[in-house]
Amino acid sequence: MAFAASMAAADGAAGQTPQTFPRMAPEAARQVSPPLAELTDRVLFGEIWRREALGPRDRSLVTVATLIANGRAAQLRGHLGRALDNGVTPLEISETIAHLAFYAGWPAAISAVAEAKAVYDARGIAAGPALAEPAAPLELEPLAEARRRAAVEAAVAGVAPPLAAQTNDTLFGELWRRPGLAPRDRSLVTLVALVANGQAEQLPFHLERALEAGLTRPQLAEVITHLAFYAGWPRAMSAVPVVARVLAARDAAAAPAPAPAPELVIQRRAAHPAVPGPAGNFTGTPQVGSRFQVEPGSAIGGGLVAFPAGARTNWHSHPRGQTLIIVSGEGWVQRDGGAAEPLRPGDVVWIPPGLRHWHGATAASAMAHVAIAGAVEGNTTTWLEPVTAAQYPGP
What we know:
Mean pLDDT: 90
Structural class: alpha+beta
Largest sheet: 6 strands, antiparallel
Low-confidence stretches: 1-18
Distance between the termini: 77 Å
CATH architecture of the largest domain: Up-down Bundle
CATH class of the largest domain: Mainly Alpha
Order of helices and strands: HHHHHHHHHHHHHEEEEEEEEEEEEE
């Protein structure tokens, strides 16, 4: 879908169609097929060749590679001249012909040689050794090459060992390392040859290679569109779903991994035995257990506090307030200046922030509650003086 959208976006980018067009169709076409001549002038050269998403040089490379791959020698001479005018160098044409011998066959490449020689002679371009690239071979990415070589060995060597050797040693070990044609352009003419010859099943590997070498998705959309005019609509349309799958797979691989599902955290009671509450904060010996503050630095914490009969907290307050959930027994809670309120299992008490108060068991019954409090800079409680016998209510 993403590739189809890219094609559609490219199709709308041409802008307003000019009212006058260059006369590019041969005169014979005007005599034999006026509709073909009109479409050649108006659409192919008046629109397609003018689209900015793929420059004239790249369009010439695509066209020349298509004509070579399809053996269209009669059309090649004019487009070789156009390619030279559009900035393709004689050395790049030489390398393109040699490259396509491997991807379209030797007869197609040899047929192109005669047309190129005629163009070079007409323009006074020196041939021969001047078109043999003397520079040092390119270095290919070692890890990617190791994977590619292993894939060739696994898929080919068992059936055709000489083909596997030529693939590894000559095709990739030599041809793809020649610097006379940039890696991106080698990938481009390879893609063109595969689409032009209807070999879409070979596209994924080379499409990945082209994108890694710098061919952009808008350029790819233009290449497929341009090819439709020179190799035929069926070839271009057959390539689209293959390209779409490759692009979708790349998008999926580049998408951030989904966050892992959160895990349950269970603090087992046996791992957190109850401990006596600090003597300076309580009257009696309450036991504090099942403490929780699962995340380090969490703003919420608490625990289960079990008061024996008569045990109670000191007066205290909480900077973010406190919630008490009574789970067993009977007890009291009292705010400063208020009456002591009885507590029984199932009662829930909310103590507002900063409110001075105390809570604990009755004189005749133990009481247990869950206490939950928020922290400010790590502090949940401000402890004050003990609750006196006179302040503590009777049973």
